[in-house]
Design brief:
heterodimer, B: five-stranded parallel sheet, about 30% helix
């Protein structure tokens, strides 16, 4: 059954690794997990399984073994999981079949190290290939192929192989009508969809750098960057030490964004957007990305609703016209990317702080609901962002004391209310 | 689910002797047929430089060290003073200088994968090869996907 979401893929990787170890292909199973973790270090199940296998303590399933077939390998190849696909072919009888053997050899060729004196862009291409960024690698090669001197023969061959593996087309790549765009853009958006925001941002930046006339793509890139930066600002709230997985609110939406689940994040932001400006901004950014990856026309910039950060942007947006063959002509637009900082509004505790009102309000809501530990964790996260904030520090101490029962006041108040 | 794909793209493989920028691998083996087999299987992505015996191997390493991505050493190396295991230990800096033959004394230590190759892989344990400083033991002739798997594993372990 094909994996639908990132969580499905992670589970599938662990199951396949176990199946391979069960079959005696421990080395290939280990490489499969290493490849998966290199692609996405946040896969906790894969990390734990790798550790257990290396320690010799892994519990392998008995009884019916997981069916491994070429459709699984094909699916992983199309997702850019080339190292994992090669590990399956190398460690199971699939690699001895006619087609499997052919694919094994082709992947062996594609993932071979580049020459020691290769150009930096080709070294980067290799790094992207072994870290799941096949789409980015394809973009890099496509762009490099357009300049002189021409690609070395071995690199040209890899370009052809990547087109075939990812697009079923070894010849000139067809246009992919995403944002009325082109192969490089399609590959970048595929990276965004399949590998998450950080990898998608890198791919989009490469495209924007080489196509500064594409204001629409710059807009998508800007929105992606904003989302990545917001995740960075809230990083301490998203730490793995959180004992509970929030199901609603900003933190929940951020966690989904970090995992690359754009549509789930949008669902979580929608109820918040009506009364929370940050949530409304985030929702607009996420919906812009969802339109882009789905190949839908982007919503026009709404000058009233655009982010404060864009207030100094001068954008002349014109939807790219079609040349009659589904390919866009270059959009004549100018975009000025803002570089000014925007100070955050005052926090709920009064005084200028770097605290976002929504996070503080959320913490107070949690405290009122008796969820003191979560409130304390949220405030600790805010304190990490503003370590000199005396009021925040006092609030953290109050919550901690209440949680440990020292003050007794809050606990007695809660008991009186029951 | 039936997998449907068009045929894979074909291309004209570069001659084995042509240095066209493919990744450079040193292959040390006295057996001409083994070299021809392996070279043919690897040449889509790797350019093999051949050495038949230990002295030639040491010279090739000194000359090509900066460009090598891997070394494939025959375990036995008949006709040589050093066998593949001992040469591996020397290349990893695990043999005291006074115990190293003169032609191998100033060899640089290598930080690329060293893969030992043999027709009799069942006679050797992978763990033993690692203990001597090798990264993998492979059956001759070496297949391209097996070599790439080994090199990728080496790369991922160092990228951590």
């Amino acid at each position: 059954m094909p994996a639908e979401t990132q969580a499905d893929v992670e589970r599938q990787v662990a199951d396949v690794a176990r199946a391979m170890c069960q079959r005696g292909a421990i080395g290939e199973g280990v490489l499969l997990l290493r490849g998966a973790l290199h692609r996405d270090p946040s896969q906790a199940e894969a990390e734990a399984l790798l550790r257990e296998i290396l320690e010799g303590s892994a519990e392998l399933p008995r009884g019916t073994m997981l069916e491994l077939g070429l459709d699984l390998v094909d699916g992983w190849i199309r997702r850019g999981m080339l190292v994992e696909a090669l590990a399956i072919l190398g460690g199971t009888p699939l690699g001895s079949s006619e087609r499997g053997g052919e694919w094994a050899n082709l992947l062996g060729e594609l993932l071979a190290p580049v020459p020691a004196a290769a150009e930096p862009v080709l070294v980067r291409m290799y790094e992207e290939l072994v870290s799941g960024g096949a789409s980015v690698a394809l973009t890099l090669l496509e762009e490099r192929a357009r300049v002189t001197p021409s690609l070395p023969a071995w690199a040209g061959r890899r370009l052809g192989l990547l087109r075939w593996m990812l697009l079923d087309n070894a010849e000139a790549a067809p246009s992919i009508s995403v944002l009325n765009g082109e192969l490089g853009l399609g590959a970048a958006l595929q990276t965004l969809q399949q590998r998450g925001l950080d990898a998608g941002l890198r791919a989009l930046e490469v495209f924007v750098q080489r196509h500064p006339e594409r204001a629409d793509v710059a807009r998508v890139c800007g929105a992606t960057q904003e989302l990545v930066e917001e995740i960075g600002r809230q990083a301490s709230l998203l730490s793995k030490n959180n004992k509970t997985m929030p199901m609603t609110g900003h933190t929940a939406a951020m966690l989904q964004l970090r995992m690359g689940n754009l549509s789930v994040a949008a669902t979580l932001y929608r109820p918040l957007a009506a009364h929370d400006e940050l949530a409304a901004q985030q929702l607009r950014r996420v919906e812009l990305l969802l339109c882009a990856v789905a190949g839908k026309p982007l919503p026009p910039p709404d000058s009233a609703a655009e982010d404060a950060l864009d207030s100094e942007v001068t954008t002349l947006y014109r939807a790219p016209s079609d040349d009659g063959n589904g390919r866009a002509t270059a959009a004549a637009s100018i975009t000025v990317i803002p570089t000014t900082e925007v100070s955050r509004p005052d926090g709920v505790l009064g005084g200028p702080t770097a605290v976002t009102p929504s996070a503080g309000q959320q913490a107070e809501n949690l405290a009122r609901a008796g969820r003191l530990e979560e409130a304390e964790q949220l405030y600790r996260g805010l304190l990490d962002l503003s370590p000199d904030d005396v009021l925040l520090r006092r609030r953290v101490e109050e919550l901690r004391a209440a949680r440990l029962g020292r003050s007794g006041v809050l606990i007695r108040a809660m008991i009186r209310c029951e | 689910m039936r997998v449907t794909r068009p045929p894979a793209p074909g291309w004209t493989l570069p001659p084995s002797t042509e240095a066209d920028g493919r990744a450079l691998v040193l292959y040390v083996d006295v057996d001409d047929r083994s070299f021809a087999d392996t070279s043919g299987r690897l040449r889509a992505a790797y350019h093999l430089v051949r050495a038949q015996k230990d002295r030639e191997a040491c010279d090739a390493i000194r000359k090509n060290k900066a460009h090598l991505v891997a070394v494939l050493l025959d375990v036995d190396m008949p006709g040589s003073v050093l066998d593949g295991i001992l040469l591996t230990r020397i290349l990893r800096g695990r043999v005291p200088k006074k115990a190293v033959p003169p032609f191998a004394r100033d060899l640089p230590t290598l930080d690329v994968p060293i893969i030992l190759v043999t027709h009799r892989s069942q006679s050797y344990a992978d763990d033993d090869m690692r203990r001597y400083g090798g990264d993998r033991l492979m059956q001759k002739p070496v297949e391209i996907h097996k070599l790439t798997l080994a090199l990728t594993d080496w790369h991922l372990q160092r990228a951590k």
